[in-house]
Structure formats: structure tokens, C-alpha cells
Prior knowledge:
Layout lengths: L1 H17 L6 E4 L6 H29 L1 H6 L4 H18 L4 E4 L2 H22 L10
Antiparallel strand pairs: 1-2
Helix pairs in contact: 1-2, 1-5, 2-4, 4-5
Amino acid sequence: MRFIIRVVVNAFALWVVTLIPVLQVTITAFPPGETLQLVLTLLAVAAIFALVNTIIGTVVKIVAFPLYIITFGLIGFVINGFLLWLTAWITSGFGWGLTVGSFWWGVLAALIISVINGVFNFILRPQRRTSRRD
């Protein structure tokens, strides 16, 4: 269930990023390219992005741990941009999916996606119930 919510939030974040034309991030929908195909493409790209982030992102972040310390965590922006670019590369092989115009615009797009994901994670996180002992 958490993965499905993560995919839906990622799809929404990717859609928001594609609405900002200066970022040069676009989605090529499944043929014939109508609204339903666009939504399905966003969900598929978001699922691939979540898998890339989970599998490859974890390995890259472990290997880059010394760089996190040296750069006070700023290398994370570059790594997230790389993971977004990698997702675009993977989906471009299918003839549909994500395209990123430039690596540095991809880094900025990944930053916006991270902010949107953070906001939704804050809103959707499970609330802890505190029990009162009187």
C-alpha cells in the first residue's frame, strides 16, 4: 500500500514538474496520447522512478556517503538529479516516458519533486495515538 501511495505522489510530482516549461522535462504518453494514456504513463514513469530510487539510489547513496559528509549533504541534489536522468534514460528505450533536456535542469526538477514528496509525506504520514494513563 505504501508503494502505491509513493507511486501516486511521484506521478503527481512529475506532472507538476512537466508543467514548468523552463525545466525542459516532458512526458511522452503512450499512443494515442490522450488523457488516460498520459495518466498511465505518469504512473508507469513514477513506478520506475520509485524502483530506481529504491534500488540504485540506495547503492549510490551508500557509496557516496563520504561525499555527503564533505559537501554537507549537497551531493544529494546531484544524486537525485542523476536518478531522475537515469529514469528518463530507461523510459526513453520504450518510446514513451520521461525526457530531461539538461542534467542541471534535471537536478532542479528532482529538487522540486523531493519538496512535493516531502509535503505529501508530512500530510499522509500515519498519526500516532497517544494513550493517556490516569
